[in-house]
């Protein structure tokens, strides 16, 4: 039974799924020809590409990318770019286009290169819209700020609501655009990006877009220097889990640019693409990677360690409430303390997969409530936590937080005592929501909203269910918080004196804004003349504002007295007060009690610290204490190079041009060639099908937005009649995804023999599989969908018989009567869910299921039913996996000995079918004594019927792999150890079933085998069972191999060893 109506080249529905019906091994066995095996590899490559562009419905399992909205994309051109946008974001995109032209001017001088053709830039108004894009395959998490892809060299990114941050992300992605422009041009044959580690690629993009002054990266480097864990280049390349490639990569690139000149950064890239990074260091810089590592480490220690003298270690400030500041790689962020100071809500990752919302006692850190989030809640897909924190109701009974659901952000509230979600609110006409603040009277929630790529302040009335917009301009409006009297909102902004200039696109550093909620009047406060000042929080009396600032290069908490207009230092840490990003919320103050909670960075992770009200008063600062933020400079502090990066970052006007949007047009739907599967040619001599020459080629097309996709492939297997191919089209523009296709696939099998007169005869039998189908799906969410398909298949047959004389001369002779064609028309309806999290060889957490019914009509009429349900229970470090599977063909009557029996049969003995009981493969049964005596007697029995049911249990232990997942760190050959138990039973329409355990062996008459010439079983169907151990190995990321050793309970041979080439179920 096939899982889909449309099945190109018998590799599964549209292919692209993990659980294919055929594999390289089964293809090799089926084709029995080296040429056909090569063509099977081509077919697999083409089919995988088809799967890559097909809708999610083309997969057996798989999560959905849902197009919740249909965007009216339009386009205009600048000197160097094709800009794609939709009308709501036009103002922000026009400014982003000017940024792009300025970045082009900067990067072209750095790379000494110009584009030969314009590059596409696709902008989305916010992150929820961006996560729906079809221009990037696969799911996009909220941590993805932009993507540059290599097929069409598109940059795809959301606008951030802060012009400075949007400019940084765009500059970063355009570095990748230049990198691809070098790597993919024909005049750079032999250039390989595979020679470059991630830290080098991303570190270069960070450095060329931010420069050397970056307090956030400096905080990471100080932390590593203080704990003596500065990585070498070799460690960076090999251990990306322990050393974040962006931060450490930026620091290394800053050192190279500062010592050798910024031009050497791009020279190093150009050389490493040809000779590898290690050799490029020698050729370009005249130094080995090991020596460079030691120089950088010493320079980093010299720059940062003296600056930490006299500052407070993280484990000595306040009270560590959540997490241990001495532990490695924790994630405890976005604290929000209750009004009375008794509880703190925060986001934490307590295992490898789940980032969830917790409520803890603010004194002891004991968890008192956990929101059952994306693991089990069907109402939302993800918590928003990178740029957002939640808010408490004034009575402390409810907590509001932001989720991603149905393609937009929602405000959810839940009862802190019961954990029950009370309300879900989707705010109309606001694309994204950040940073909630519950008003003191409990009647409204303020938030920062993103609409059209611009951030503004909004207030949502909980009783009236309406929203009021407080600001409406291009300035950033982030992280609002209420004053105790409810009349004022403090927020983070870039407006005011020395603020952002939208003509020259100079960006003001973040400072604090105060808006009168009634009148809308705004004033700004900038306690320090330099650095970022953000995340404001009012004191309980409303006379002070706490905030986070990096004015001296260290991120600390300060208090600003509104009456005195004086600033007080609250913390002075060796590392810093921070969330995941430089602008993430990190600070919260209890509205009534004044207790403070903030997240601190230490040991490569985040913990949450509490201060009593007395500890938050701070020490008053004098004007002379405001220092230059040299601690934010990445070493060398005094660069010797040309300073190209620093120069262009300080020059906002060079390269800045106006853009003309008068020629805006609707985005083109024209299909463009994406990829050609390299042509393959092969030949075989001799064998059962004789001498043959074969080859094939495939083509992939799509439109600029990735909505429409077309794939075409052709393969020639020898003669004219052996030419096959297919055409497949899919459309994913709307929520209803659909695909149509047609394919023709010949396959040949041959045999040779000798007539009674001694003449050699070659017989070649061909099957011609011609298929047409259409399939559509409707995704309800990222995790479940409904599929509907229709299609038809024709199987044609031919036989060629050639007789050879003793001189090798041949003559085609009459083959006699050829079998009539077989026809099937089918429809299918399926409900599919997938909320699993995958490891490196098999799923580790969550679950997946598929329920499908497929009526089939034609040469045989029957209804195929599929029920496949799988759950994965993860308790670090092991996973308990359970599966139940039923496949059945109903209404097909009994086996009749006709060829159509193959279409109604289900088996437990094929390793490459979903229902396989380990230890009972047909090939291994040849070793049974009764089977050796009579091969025909082993064809069916307990392993063969029109229906089957299977149950499996596995205990999976990651042995080798990444440090965060496995017992032993060895990323080059990830390996899982598995203990398993399988049980399955097959039956036909008329069978009795006996599910009791029986140890009678396969191959004996008593098992219910189908003897030679018989069409009926002799006894009731009984299960076959096995248990054992296996090892699954991910071989170079290309294929998963499982080697198992099974104890079989219904075979004469008690133990069986086997190998399967496929991922775990």
From TrEMBL:
InterPro entries: 6-blade_b-propeller_TolB-like (IPR011042), WD40 (IPR011659). Pfam families: PD40. Signal peptide: none annotated. It comes from the Bacteria. PANTHER family: PROTEIN TOLB, PROTEIN TOLB HOMOLOG. Belongs to the TolB family. This is Peptidase S9.
């Amino acid at each position: 039974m096939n899982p889909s109506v449309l099945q190109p080249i018998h590799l599964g529905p549209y292919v692209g799924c993990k659980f294919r019906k055929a594999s390289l091994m089964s293809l090799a066995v089926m084709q029995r020809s080296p040429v056909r095996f090569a063509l099977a590899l081509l077919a697999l490559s083409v089919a995988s590409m088809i799967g890559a562009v097909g809708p999610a419905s083309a997969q057996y399992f798989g999560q959905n990318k849902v197009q919740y909205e249909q965007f009216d994309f339009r386009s205009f051109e600048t000197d160097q770019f094709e800009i794609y946008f939709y009308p709501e974001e036009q103002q922000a995109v026009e400014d982003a286009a000017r940024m792009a032209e300025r970045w082009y001017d900067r990067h072209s001088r750095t790379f000494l290169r110009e584009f030969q053709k314009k590059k596409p830039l696709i902008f989305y108004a916010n992150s929820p819209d961006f996560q729906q894009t079809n221009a990037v395959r696969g799911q996009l998490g909220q941590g993805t700020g932009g993507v540059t892809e290599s097929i069409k060299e598109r940059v795809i990114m959301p606008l951030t609501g802060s012009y400075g941050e949007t400019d940084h992300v765009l500059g970063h992605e355009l570095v990748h655009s230049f990198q691809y422009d070098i790597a993919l041009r024909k005049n750079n044959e032999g250039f390989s990006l595979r020679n470059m580690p991630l830290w080098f690629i991303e570190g270069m993009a960070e450095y060329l877009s931010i420069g050397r002054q970056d307090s956030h990266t400096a905080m990471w480097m100080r932390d590593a220097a203080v704990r003596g864990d500065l990585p070498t280049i070799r460690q960076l390349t090999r251990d990306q889990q322990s050393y974040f490639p962006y931060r450490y990569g930026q620091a290394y690139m800053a050192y190279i640019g500062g010592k050798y000149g910024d031009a050497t950064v791009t020279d190093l890239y150009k050389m490493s693409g040809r000779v590898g990074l290690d050799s490029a260091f020698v050729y370009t810089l005249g130094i080995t990677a090991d020596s460079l590592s030691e120089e950088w480490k010493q320079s980093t220690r010299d720059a940062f360690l003296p600056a930490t003298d006299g500052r407070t270690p993280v484990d000595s400030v306040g009270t560590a409430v959540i997490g241990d500041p001495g532990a490695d790689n924790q994630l405890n962020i976005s604290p929000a303390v209750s009004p009375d100071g008794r509880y703190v809500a925060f986001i934490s990752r307590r295992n490898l997969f789940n980032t969830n919302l917790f409520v803890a006692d603010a004194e002891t850190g004991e968890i008192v409530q956990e929101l059952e989030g994306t693991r089990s809640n069907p109402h939302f897909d993800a918590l928003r936590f990178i740029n957002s924190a939640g808010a408490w109701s004034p009575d402390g009974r409810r907590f509001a937080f932001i989720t991603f659901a149905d393609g937009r952000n929602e405000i959810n509230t839940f009862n802190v005592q019961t954990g029950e979600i009370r309300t879900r609110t989707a705010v109309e006409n606001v694309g994204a929501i950040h940073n909630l603040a519950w008003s003191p009277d409990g009647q409204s929630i303020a938030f920062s909203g993103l609409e059209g790529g611009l951030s503004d302040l909004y207030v949502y009335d909980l009783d009236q269910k309406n929203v009021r917009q407080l600001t409406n301009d291009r300035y950033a409006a982030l992280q609002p918080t209420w004053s105790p009297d409810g009349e004022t909102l403090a927020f983070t902004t870039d407006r005011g004196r020395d603020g952002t200039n939208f003509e020259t696109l100079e960006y003001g550093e973040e400072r604090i804004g105060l808006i009168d909620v009634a009148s809308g009047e705004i004033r700004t406060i900038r306690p320090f003349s330099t650095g970022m000042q953000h995340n404001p929080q009012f004191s309980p009396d409303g006379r002070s504002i706490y905030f986070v600032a990096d004015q001296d290069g260290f991120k600390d908490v300060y208090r600003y007295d509104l009456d005195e207009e004086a600033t007080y230092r609250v913390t002075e840490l060796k590392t810093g007060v921070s969330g995941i990003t430089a602008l993430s919320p990190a600070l919260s103050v209890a509205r009534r009690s004044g207790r403070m909670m903030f997240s601190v960075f230490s040991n490569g992770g985040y913990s949450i610290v509490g201060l009593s009200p007395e500890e938050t008063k701070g020490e008053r600062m004098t004007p002379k204490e405001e220092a230059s933020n040299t601690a934010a400079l990445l070493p060398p502090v005094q660069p010797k190079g040309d300073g190209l990066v620093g120069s262009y970052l300080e020059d906002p006007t060079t390269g800045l041009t106006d853009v003309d949007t008068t020629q805006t047009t609707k985005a083109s739907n024209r299909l463009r060639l994406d990829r050609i599967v390299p042509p393959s040619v092969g030949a075989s001599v001799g064998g059962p099908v004789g001498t043959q020459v074969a080859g094939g080629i495939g083509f992939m097309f799509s439109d600029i937005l990735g909505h429409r996709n077309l794939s075409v492939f052709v393969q020639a297997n020898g003669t004219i009649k052996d030419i096959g191919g297919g055409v497949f089209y899919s459309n994913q523009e709307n929520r209803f995804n659909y695909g149509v296709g047609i394919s023709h696939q010949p396959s040949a099998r041959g045999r040779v023999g000798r007539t009674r007169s001694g003449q050699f005869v070659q017989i070649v039998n061909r099957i011609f599989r011609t298929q047409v189908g259409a399939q559509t799906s409707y995704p309800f969410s990222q995790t479940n969908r409904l599929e509907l398909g229709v299609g038809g298949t024709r199987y044609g047959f031919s036989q060629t018989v050639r007789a050879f004389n003793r001189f090798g001369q041949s003559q085609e002779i009459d083959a006699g009567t050829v079998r009539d064609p077989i026809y099937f028309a089918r429809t299918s309806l399926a409900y599919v869910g997938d909320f699993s999290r995958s490891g490196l060889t098999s799923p580790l957490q969550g679950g997946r299921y598929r329920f499908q019914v497929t009526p089939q009509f034609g040469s045989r009429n029957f209804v195929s039913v599929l029920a496949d349900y799988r759950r994965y229970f993860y308790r670090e470090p092991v996973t308990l996996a359970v599966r139940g599977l039923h496949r059945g063909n109903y209404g097909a009557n009994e086996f009749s000995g006709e060829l159509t029996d193959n279409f109604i049969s289900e088996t437990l003995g094929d390793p490459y079918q979903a229902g396989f009981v380990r230890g009972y493969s047909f090939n291994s049964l040849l070793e049974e004594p009764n089977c050796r005596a009579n091969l025909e007697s082993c064809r069916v029995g307990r392993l063969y019927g029109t229906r089957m049911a299977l149950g499996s249990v596995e205990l999976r232990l990651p042995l080798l792999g990444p440090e965060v997942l496995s017992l032993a760190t060895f990323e080059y050959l990830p390996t899982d150890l598995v203990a398993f138990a399988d049980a399955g039973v097959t039956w036909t329409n008329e069978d009795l079933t006996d599910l009791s355990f029986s140890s009678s062996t396969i191959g004996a008459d008593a098992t219910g085998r189908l003897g030679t010439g018989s069409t009926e079983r002799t006894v009731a169907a009984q299960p076959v069972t096995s248990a054992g151990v296996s090892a699954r190995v991910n071989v170079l990321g290309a294929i998963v191999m499982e080697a198992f050793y099974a104890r079989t309970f219904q075979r004469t041979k008690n133990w069986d060893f086997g190998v399967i080439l496929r991922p775990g179920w």
